[in-house]
Amino acid sequence: MSDAPKHKHLVFSGMQPTNTLHLGNYLGALKNWVKIQNDMPCIYCVVDMHAITQDVGYGRPAELAQATREVAAAYIAAGVDLKKSLVFNQARVPAHAELAWIFNCVARLGWLDRMTQFKEKSGKHKERASVGLYTYPTLMAADILAYKATHVPVGEDQKQHLELSRDIAQKFNNDFSVPDFFPLPEPVITGPGTRVMSLRDGAKKMSKSDDSDYSRINLTDDADAIAQKIRKAKTDPAPLPDSEKGLEGRPEAENLFNIYAALADEPRARVVAQFAGQQFSGFKNALAELAVAKLTPIAAEMRRLLADPGEIDRVLADGAMRAGAIAGPVLAEVKRLVGFLH
Ligand code: TYM
Fold first, then answer.
1. How far is the CA of 237 from the centre of ligand 1 (A)?
2. Which phi and psi (to 5°) does residue 75 adopt?
3. What pLDDT is attached to residue 2?
4. What is the maximum span of the chain, computed from C-alpha positions, in angstroms?
């Protein structure tokens, strides 16, 4: 934690309100968010501005608003504590967009050209992707640095974006001769759930955009759906290994063990030892039971919270007011450094 002494510890992270959240979002990020709240102050954002980079949602404002409420409800239902953490949606705090513009002028085209997520998301027809999708990582850097956040708990797939955030912070500090102005935010990528794979293909990440609903467990799935998806998950014919080494070259088995270990909060080696030599069917039954026990209470709490959308909107508005009070002075300092305020 190289910059710990210079900057107060502060956590920032976010999720996009696009489709429903899935087990990867929960194990890779959300579960760690809940833990880290006991160690440092946290800001958890629903990044609705990022959500329009692939689909602006022309004429469907209610859909985005509802998806934003659902993600906020998922945060709270999973254990984000509003007494310890701020929850709000990005678009309510203009500092994110303003700082992102300045960062667009700090970041180099070559840096963004290297972003693998843009390449994946834009597909074969890059020229048809929105400009917003391309500059997505500079907005992400602004999200974090508008608060001078020091720690960012995310899944493995965000690592490259965080490296870019550090590069932007470093270049800004150097170019404006303010060596410690922005912290270099630390990625917090921990535990066995940092890269949850598709249940249909152990080589593909579990993702909201996969066409097959059987590839993922949604946070809103009921017990039957969860159990069925786990029972149908792709496996191989060999019995279960007796050590972690035996998971090598068996991506589907490895994924299911990672999921079990992350859900149970147990070291993977212990889970492997527990099921050593058994058939997949028994392990899958145990995993289904565990997943149902851990996930269905979250879904139930989400439903309860979503029954009162006005209350969620109040939480978001209140969070935004408090977030704006932190980001405002940082942005004012940046504007002074750039020469916009004198
Ligand atoms: P998003 O909305 O794609 O994903 C939200 C979080 O879930 C993690 N995640 C996964 N973790 C493990 N296995 C998976 N299969 C999996 N799929 C997703 C992601 O790593 C992420 O932590 N760019 C971000 C949102 C963002 C952000 C930020 C994050 C915007 N600004 C500032 C941190 C800080 C994103 O698209 O996440």
1. 33
2. -55, -50
3. 52
4. 71
208 is catalytic: yes
Neighbours of 29 (CB within 10 A): 26
Average pLDDT over residues 238-256: 96
Is 121 assigned a catalytic role? Answer: yes
Q: Is the CB of 205 under 6 A from ligand 1?
A: yes
Instruction: Give the number of the atom of ligand 1 that is nearest the alpha carbon of residue 157.
Output: 20
* pTM check: above 0.90: yes
Predicted confidence (pLDDT) per residue in 4-46, tens digit: 468 999 999 999 999 889 999 999 999 999 999 999 999 999 9
Determine phi and psi for 85, rounding to 5 degrees: -125, 150
Catalytic residue among 121, 159, 234, 335: 121
- Beta bridge partners of residue 85, listed in sequence order: 42
The whole-number pLDDT of residue 6 equals 86
DSSP secondary structure code for residue 288 in this structure = H
What is the whole-number distance in angstroms between the Cα of residue 341 and the centre of ligand 1?
A: 34
